[in-house]
Write a structure and sequence with these properties.
about 230 residues; alpha+beta; Jelly Rolls; seven-stranded mixed beta sheet; three-stranded antiparallel beta sheet; 10 strands; globular; disordered N terminus
Length: about 230
């Protein structure tokens, strides 16, 4: 990810009260999207719950992704500094991953560790999914989380506030608004329930429902290390 800039915001911009009574009730989960990777740092703004880098995957990735997805289902998880974590991930995959994919994961891990301030380490999960996965609407119990669907449909999300309490009561047949969906290859950083000051405002999202006979999805998930066991 050459040229990624981690923008610095004034303290006042990051400290504006959005969750107290003086700020009122937040009605929408704000998403900021752009075609440049610099947009990912916008998730640090207090009123933003989702930052999306809309990008197209290099065509050179396609053959290697097919090989990985043919080995589905699998999940490989590791933690550590980005370069070491990617090396460990490589050893856990059922088949060899294309170099371009590993370089992309490493670049995203470096960027995420800087944005999330994880002291230079990251938790990487790469999985090929053949079933329904997390098909229920939910908000993650994490601070920040990066998601990228390398193959198959991207994550669906709802532009409403309320976080986990609202997500638990949603009727999937009578949603209060239209759903949005990340494109394949797009990189998103979601703000979860454990981000400072964001309890009750986590980004509500889900994995897209899998239809019969659909091919495997290849999903990358990056988190802060240490909070989730390496199962």
């Amino acid at each position: 990810m050459p040229g990624l800039i981690l923008e610095s915001f004034p303290a006042a911009a990051l400290a504006s009260p959005l969750h107290g009574a003086a700020a009122g009730v937040r009605q929408r989960a704000i998403c900021v999207a752009a075609a440049e990777p610099e947009v990912l740092v916008e998730v640090l703004r207090p009123d933003v719950n989702l930052a999306v880098w809309n990008r197209a995957l290099p065509g050179s990735l396609a053959p290697g992704l097919r090989v990985l997805c043919d080995a589905a289902p699998f999940v490989a998880v590791c933690e550590g500094p980005p370069e070491e974590a990617v090396d460990a991930l490589t050893a856990k995959l059922p088949v060899a991953a294309p170099l371009d994919l590993l370089l992309d994961i490493r670049a995203l891990a470096i960027a995420f560790s800087g944005i999330a301030e994880t002291a230079g380490a990251v938790r990487i999960r790469l999985e090929a999914i053949t079933g329904p996965a997390c098909h229920r609407w939910h908000a993650d119990a994490v601070g920040l989380r990066l998601l990228c669907a390398y193959r198959g449909p991207g994550t669906e999300w709802l532009p409403i506030a309320g976080g986990a309490p609202i997500a638990r009561d949603l009727d999937p047949k009578a949603l209060p608004c239209g759903r949005a969906q990340l494109a394949t290859g797009a990189v998103a950083i979601l703000k979860g329930e454990r981000y400072p000051g964001n309890a009750g405002f986590g980004c509500i999202h889900r994995s897209p429902p899998a239809g019969p006979g659909e091919r495997a999805r290849l999903l990358l998930c990056l988190d802060e290390p240490g909070r989730i066991p390496l199962a």
